[in-house]
Amino acid sequence: MWMHPWxxxxxxxxxxxxxxxxxxxxxxxGSIEVDMFHYPVNLISGTVFILLxxxxxxxxxxxxxxxxxxxxEASITASVSLLVLVIIMGLTRQVSSPTDLSSIGGFxxxxxxxxxxxxxxxxxxxxxxxILGLVILRRINCFRWKDAGFVLNHVGLFVALFAAILGSGxxxxxxxxxxxxxxxxRATNEKNEITELPLAIELKSFRIDEYPPxxxxxxxxxxxxxxxTQPKSLLVETYPLLSTLLNWEVAITNYLSEAAALxxxxxxxxxxxxxxxxxxxLYVKARNTIDGTIREGWVSCGSFMFPYRSLRLNDKESLxxxxxxxKHFASNVIVYTQSKKIKKSLIEVNKPLSIAGWKIYQLNYxxxxxxxxxxxxxxxxxxxxIPAVYSGILMMLAGAVYLFVSAPNPKKN
Amino acid sequence: MNWTHFVYFALPAALCWVGGALFAYKxxxxxxxxxxxxxxxxxxxxxxxxxxxSLERPPLRTMGETRLWYSFFLPVAGLIMYIRxxxxxxxxxxxxxxxxxxxxNLFRPEIHNxxxxxxxxxxxxxxxxxxxxxxxxxxGAAAVIALYLLLRRNKAIMNVSVMSLCDNLAYVGTAFLxxxxxxxxxxxxxxxxxxxxxxxxxxxxxxxxxxxxxYIHYRQHKxxxxxxxxxxxxxxxxxxxxxxYGINYLPSAQGSSIHVYS
Lengths: 413, 262
Fold this sequence. Notes:
Largest sheet of chain B: none
Distance between the termini of chain B: 20 Å
Largest sheet of chain A: 5 strands, antiparallel
Order of helices and strands of chain A: HHHHHHEEEEEEEEEEEEEEEEEH
Order of helices and strands of chain B: HHHHHHHH
Shape of chain A: elongated
Structural class of chain A: alpha+beta
Largest interface: A-B, 60 and 60 residues
Number of strands of chain B: 0
Strand content of chain A: 25-35%
Radius of gyration of chain B: 19 Å
Number of strands of chain A: 17
Number of domains of chain B: 2
Oligomer: heterodimer
CATH class of the largest domain in chain B: Mainly Alpha
Helix content of chain B: over 70%
CATH topology of the largest domain in chain B: Four Helix Bundle (Hemerythrin (Met), subunit A)
Distance between the termini of chain A: 38 Å
Strand content of chain B: under 5%
């Protein structure tokens, strides 16, 4: 061991050494503080890292041992070590904030529950990235066109990982709750600290399209939908409708998509009501297919104004309507920027708005108010390193296509 | 179109695939093999298309629906490999695998829900899952071959050509795994604001991907060490199972994944 030429055993030893070093650092100093790593610290350390790799690459011509780091043994052992940590991460519940850790005790100190900011992960990741860099430098040094796929895959991965890790310190993710007709420029970060933004959002209107109502059967005692393992539901797309749900033949004779409950001393009925707070209601006749008992009445999911209404079928079961699931939700907004730019836009899930270096995402709404929500919650993300990450991703995509096309063909050989 | 119509499409498609697989063993039936298999694929795809239209969304959300694509892509992968490398047995194999998944869907139908949460309604959704299903199909083939070779090690069937078959499958599968993962990353940026958030599904996808990369590198470094390579192929496929549906049962992933199948 440690004699030229190095083999796998040296690789395993280096990785184990890095892992143990990481554990010692973790136990003595705790997790890595990512907050420190913003501009210009990230840019400087990135440049130093690249220069160091270049230096090692050039120096490797004189020191033969260094050539081992761009070989298969180093690549494979580094990848396996990283894989082990990723598997541990997959098997351990990950928590996002250190405060969640205090209740867990000793195991939390290993850092495994916040793997991406643990020292072992960090050291092995940087080692992996260094080897990837050295492998690339060695291959580029004697580049031939048939190496194109290799270069795309490896450089793409390096660029994406490198930009992702450097960019993590500059990434800003903020949450903003905008109320109707009130411009808002304050947002909170992940630690719930308020930040003032160089832009303001005014919510003009908020809209939810919902899926048709569903009926389900509930166990009166446990309060769980039936059957417990895979609850069945009946989607009411049209009415009148005759269908079956578990042991019940269900006939829908009336459907009010916007309704109000009329509550008297001993009855509850529903009438059409096109205004704020409206709920949905179905008039259901249910017949038990086994004993023939018949039950009928209104079923409604309720809203913030009206109570929900279930239909008691027998001692064991009730028919209920869960809250209608949102199909789309979108906010009509006006965004004001510091450069006096005013932009009207519709922000939807999966359709963020890009403005002044920020991306604005539709995140949530006031769920207790449902479709009558008077607020809309946005996530604002600024990620200046994203073009670099995307260029890495594009190179990898091209490389993957190359990998597919160039899979070795024994017939040709 | 709904799941009660499935059997009327699945059976004719399966018959075509079985026919194609049998023709593949005849020396002069190259074109007939391809036409018959492709015809079966058309029938099967007609059902997927019908479901797509009647559900008003791509049928990709529930486990049953992803199995549908899996049984579609196994013969597709088989056909591509047959055309490219003329392996006679590959279609029998892909047909058999597809039949298993068709049977699961026939005999263990799950609750098929029409609704789909807004975050999934994206043009990236279909390519992301379809590409992954194709990768799973190809890597599934690689894993079965690896298992067969490991179990019958002493019969001297291990040779360069059988190992290069494993390599081909692993290369193609890994290429698609990479594309699926990167599509997912690009989509995630548009839907959740970040391209990678170490969600349990993403963690296991990273592990799976890394493991297949290790296989590819190990094969290049030690081309004659078959046993370790085959073991790696099998191990990678186990990781893939955890990633695909295993995380639904893992305590560490409960309640924290945005990739939950209903």
